[in-house]
Design goal:
Layout lengths: L12 H12 L6 E5 L6 H13 L13 H7 L6 E4 L10 H12 L8 E5 L7 H12 L5 E7 L7 H4 L3 E4 L5 H11 L8 H7 L4 H9 L2 H16 L5 H6 L6 H21 L11 H8 L4 H20 L5 H15 L1
Helix pairs in contact: 4-5, 7-9, 8-9, 10-12, 12-13, 12-14, 14-15
């Protein structure tokens, strides 16, 4: 984790209170899976809860922020906290990293309290890593807590998930998300907030990233390009080349939302509420020329492309993007 800020996000209070009560009754499980859509702050919560468990003088509000343990945590050098993520230039958590976890668990807590292991994302463990972790989960040691963070809990092996208690991070009410986001943005960004929260499908941190990463501009370039491709005013291969140096996952997220809006209109009619509400008229025009089978087929390919990018490090991203846009032209 790069940030040194340790804070509880407002919509996470019920989860915090529930775990606090379990810990007070000495009923805290040895392993938790934090599941839910991206943008709910699961990693932030894991860091907050780890800080609380490791704090020498914790309160019901969280870690004190002043003790030696909190200072070590803020400096990202706490000896009893192990954060496991894919290594640089990798999207996989490998068996050697899990072997480090096993050694860590079998050791002694340096400060005499909890030992905390955070695995993020847990679904990034390959088969060998997951199998290596299994025995440790089956034979938990005292004062040790695993927190497995996963956007897609169904991708966890059943042998792993069955040995953990699942905590679901649901989306907050729209007004609660809006209040928090207003505190994160400047005045010039506020007029776009309702649309952006809609595009983020209610996930507050994802909505914040739309502004931080200028994804609104990315979205406009992509969607306007799709319209130009439909009108045969642009070459799909040249359009794919535009994205060669850009991050592909946000692009595929936008394509996924676009294809789902197409399907909504096709199945529910022109008056259905869309995520891309400002493109509703254009989407209706496009859908009128498509069959349900074509819409389903394209959406399925977008999801497969997302899975390929997510799971394969050496995939030819440019070739995949060309295929996405060529299929779009043929679809229309």
């Amino acid at each position: 984790m790069r940030s040194t800020e340790i804070a509880l996000l407002p919509w996470q209070t019920p989860i915090w209170q529930s775990l606090l009560q379990r810990q007070a009754r000495h009923c805290l499980p040895h392993a938790l899976v934090f599941s839910g859509v991206d943008g709910m702050g699961k990693k932030e919560f894991a860091r907050f809860f780890a800080s609380y468990l490791l704090c020498m003088t914790p309160t019901t509000m969280g870690p004190c922020g002043q003790c030696r343990s909190c200072h070590l945590q803020q400096a990202q050098s706490h000896p009893d906290l192990l954060w496991v993520e894919p290594e640089e230039n990798s999207q996989i958590i490998k068996i050697d990293q899990v072997r480090e976890v096993v050694d860590f668990v079998n050791g002694t807590a340096m400060l005499g309290g909890y030992r905390v292991i955070v695995i993020s994302p847990a679904s990034a463990m390959n088969m060998y890593a997951a199998n290596a972790l299994l025995k440790t989960l089956e034979e938990p040691t005292a004062n040790t807590l695993f927190m497995l963070i996963c956007n897609q809990s169904l991708r966890l092996p059943a042998t792993i998930s069955s040995r953990c208690q699942k905590i679901v991070f649901g989306k907050p009410p729209t007004e609660d998300a809006m209040i928090w986001l207003r505190s994160q943005l400047d005045d010039t960004q506020l007029p776009m907030l309702p649309l952006v929260l809609q595009l983020a499908e209610g996930a507050p941190l994802l909505a914040r990233d739309f502004f931080k990463d200028d994804r609104l501009a990315l979205r406009q370039e992509l969607y306007d390009g799709l319209v130009q491709l439909r009108l045969q005013k642009m070459d799909p291969v040249k359009f794919a080349a535009r994205w060669e140096d850009k991050t592909v996952l946000p692009l595929l997220n936008l394509l996924s939302v676009w294809s789902r809006d197409l399907l909504r209109v096709k199945l529910a009619g022109p008056h259905v509420e869309l995520i891309n509400s400002d493109y509703q008229a254009m989407i209706q025009q496009i859908v009128a020329q498509l069959t349900s089978e074509n819409v389903l087929s394209y959406g399925d390919f977008v999801q497969k492309a997302y899975a390929i990018i997510l799971n394969l490090l050496n995939v030819n991203r440019q070739l995949l993007l060309k295929e996405l846009f060529i299929r779009w032209v043929k679809l229309c």
